[in-house]
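Hey, I was hoping to borrow your eyes for a little while. There's a protein on my desk that I can't quite get my head around. The fold is given in discrete form, as structure tokens running alongside the sequence. I'd be grateful if you could look everything over and explain what you see. Here's the protein in full, and shout if anything looks odd to you:
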Amino acid sequence: MDFGSSLLLLPDGKCGNDPNDITLKIDCTAHSVKYDVATNTFRALMVLTNVWCSSGIVTPNDNLVQTGGSNDDERVARVFSSYDSCNWQEISNGLTIKRWYARDHILSDGRQIVVSGRQKFNCEFVHKDSTGNTFSLSFLSKSNNRDVKNLKYIIFAI
């Protein structure tokens, strides 16, 4: 996770082990929770990858899909279903290229598109097929400003 431990332990003595983590190689604390508003209770969730600077959407079937991140987790896609016993499913090569500060959007057919990211002038669909699916968007590179970095695009599908 690269940002240290939290104050909430993972259940059943579970721990994450990331030899590439620059802060804490073995982490037994939660960095994600599921909160139930009706009962005012929460449950610790296990997420092993670095979600810092990631992006995400809620799918038409109520899954949370989060993409990209920081350091060695910029190509990770994460899926969370809201069922009581579910936890994060982490797909280590869920993206074709590294994404940091990208934008996600749901298209009218239910597919998820991930656009841009720091110094990324393209888009791709989640979940990729075996051939990859990155498409160049030249207007992103033409609008790039070295001082601003164009990290936060507004995306709207018609």
Observations:
- The first strand starts at residue 16 and ends at 17.
- The chain has a mean pLDDT of 86.
